[in-house]
């Protein structure tokens, strides 16, 4: 059999070497992945919040075949029915304006930066800068990298010159000070994902909206990780009762294929004029067709609603675990199927747990070194939760012995 680990080391640049697990995947089905040995893994990572309806969902596979037999790519100079349909549904399920599609999350951030610039040119020449949160993550291309406030990520790469104002999450005084500097826009993740699963409170998000409205500042929500039902509603902002001016989406929206973009509110939907932005591949007709099927499964088949019950059960079980083992677990954070288990003690523990659970056939993620991040498919069952909790508890307790 091929030594995939060896070939990976030889031919792929080692940007993910510290994260990579030693299993080669050959198949996915429902909530499970299978490796070359035929071993099954319960997938609580879903390729970083991408496979929201699980692996090889029958409806997704059907759409893939149907659209694959029609056409894969046509460019933006013809009408693209699967993409138009997807834009219509995304718009009608959110803030009602128009969509610009991209291939990825970072490209959605890039599009947002250009969109905000157009806002400055057309409506706010006396304003400058984008307000972002400390530790926020908005992608790794150079434009997006400037918005991303994690020093280990932006390092000393050459960054563009546009102005940003970094503030502390949940700190109202900081927010007011930033708004007083007359910025163009505020951009934030409603639940900070890569920073370690920090949900912003409804009260904070409402205050952000209030100040943005009062001062003519664009409210932009990066829902790239939180979107597509991840937090229990189609997009997380809904739960705070706010309405952003601009939504960034990606990850789960293409049903496993690359697709991202921005949605604006109607009043701003013609800020981008012909020639202002573009890309060859997006919107991929195939990704768009899958996107329509994901929305059908979430909204028409009732998966979004059903997922709330199981995610509440997961939250209860995690909270009970924290109460029983408060020496080992400092905090349980998150919303819906976006959960962070903050561990206490040895910083190696999270990595050790990830390795031990891999052995047991359960895939979990670690972020910010001490935080276990769970991003399960919305199709997760109570039985899956029970299996995870039982296995996790065993290995959590063995940390104390070792
Ligand atoms: C993943 C992510 C991005 C970047 O998306 P890519 O597709 O990896 O470029 C941006 N913002 C948030 C909140 C993300 O989670």
From TrEMBL:
GO terms for molecular function: transaminase activity. It holds the Pfam family Aminotran_3. InterPro entries: Aminotrans_3 (IPR005814), Aminotrans_3_PPA_site (IPR049704), Class-III_PLP-dep_AT (IPR050103), PyrdxlP-dep_Trfase (IPR015424), PyrdxlP-dep_Trfase_major (IPR015421), PyrdxlP-dep_Trfase_small (IPR015422). PROSITE patterns: AA_TRANSFER_CLASS_3. Its cofactor is pyridoxal 5'-phosphate. Keywords: Aminotransferase, Pyridoxal phosphate, Transferase. CDD domains: OAT_like. Belongs to the class-III pyridoxal-phosphate-dependent aminotransferase family. This is Aspartate aminotransferase family protein.
